[in-house]
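cache lookup: miss for this entity combination. No prior model stored, computing from scratch. Input as submitted by user K.M.:
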Amino acid sequence: MSNKMLLNKRIIKKTALGGILENPVFVLVLGMCPTIKASTNITDAFALGIATTFVLICSNVIISLFRKFIPDQVRLPAYIVIIATFVTIVQLFLASLLPDLNQSIGPIVAMIVVNCIVLGRAESFASKNSVLLTLIDCTSMGIGFTLSLLLMGAIRQGLIALNFSIFSTTAGGFLVLGLLMALFNFIMMTVEKRKMQKSRAGLNEEVE
Amino acid sequence: MKKMNLTLKCILVMSVIAIVSVALLAVANTFLVPAKSSGLNDKVIARLQTFCPADSYNDLTDTYADEIEKFNSENGDNYSKINGVYSAVGGDNDGNNIIEADGPGFQSGIITMLIAFNGETISGIGNRTYDTKNTYWKDHVEPNWDNVVNYFVGKSDLGSASGKDLNTGATLSSNGILKAVRLAIDFNKNINGNVQKPEPEEVTDSDILEKLKAMTNSETFIKYPYKVNQQVNCVYVDNTGSVIIDALGAEGSFGGCNLLVMVDASSKTVLKVTPIRMDYQVYGEYDASGLDDPDVLTNHFKGKNISDIDAMEKYLSPATGATESSTGLKNCIKNALKNIDGFLSSEWGSEVQTNE
């Protein structure tokens, strides 16, 4: 296998794992408003996760496709218009086919336009990488975001059902988010530590 | 020159993005028509009171959900369809159907009409919402609303009428109104049983059968699908001729009720009462166990006729557990008593030998 192919494979693998290694909620700490607001129950959390993923994929693929044509000076307004178009389509979809869901998450869906995950990935990734890599990155980030929301939604819904009503509030949401963030980062650090220990052991063996 | 080129490029790119966005949104807007709120609310009830006054209204949309879905799949589309069915309870229009139907307005707008029927004849008409995206409705239809009412009231068939016949000056909106009313007329005929009348059949539903057996000593019952209005679901008769009416009642807090009422056909009084469905909710620790107890309800209504029930206190005895729900229970029993004569004089009822 040539070096270039190996490098491409490595980049694709790294991009695909971005949703976990650079989890938008627990690592990058992006999109906090919708995360706190929509994670009081699993249904809303899942719906918002899917809506965000859809907008993330569609808008960033288009941004990546036209990255060479969009002048730097107008890139942010251009990104916002593209993102807003897809957010409006999601809103129309919810209002038309899922009116009950639209009642509960409608206002949060509108906020996806200024969601840091979408705009952040557009600015830092889609505007600099190919369509394929952007597609992989957005799918991975979207799945990571949806899973994080689902996890928070499940925990908060369970605690609310057990009459811990504080978890239905914003403060309760931040509490769960903080604890999950700590747990996530602890696990990631442990994994990283073990990896380093392993590679060190490998180096020592080679030296001996 | 370089700056000029850059400015032109920015304008060009933003214009292209804007055009593509508009095109995408136009496509989405065409295919994704927003679902409207339906069902009774204070605003709709106030509107119904203007052309079909009644003591209250019953929302029967769920009861007719299957019929509505079937009818819409065969006759409707995104812009013209049946949304709901209501019935007037009490007053001069007692038992009249009110059908909520959509028609297409100007530029993909939707006009939602409420059409009241006395049997198959239109007795009143009102508008629930309009979304015609211009001022035609306000400028032409509203000032000429009397023309619309006069045109429809008393009709049961619109023949080859066109929007111009409504004389409003808003052709497309008038066509939309006409389309909605045509659908409502056809649907009303459907639910009035004029199309495919169902046949009587032996009761096999175990839940209902258990309740019926507990009311009489019989083992078998015939279900007569006597549903000429929205006051009764059907009528059950056992082999001894006991008549039990499956009646509906509206009003009370949070919903209505559905009771089995065994009626003495000669004196038009209540013999026994058994609840099937109670939509009511209980306030705090208020004991409403009586609401589900056939004995409690029977003791309360046994031997009563319509006048006796009208003379009852607003709230039933505390033993029933009913406060605001009392009105719904009384309406339900009255609906059963009101319909006994109608059933007995129908083609099915005349065959039934009651145990008077």
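stored under new cache key. The interface with chain B takes residues 66, 69-71, 73-74, 77-78, 81-82, 84-85, 88-89, 92-93, 95-97, 99 of chain A (CB under 8 Å).
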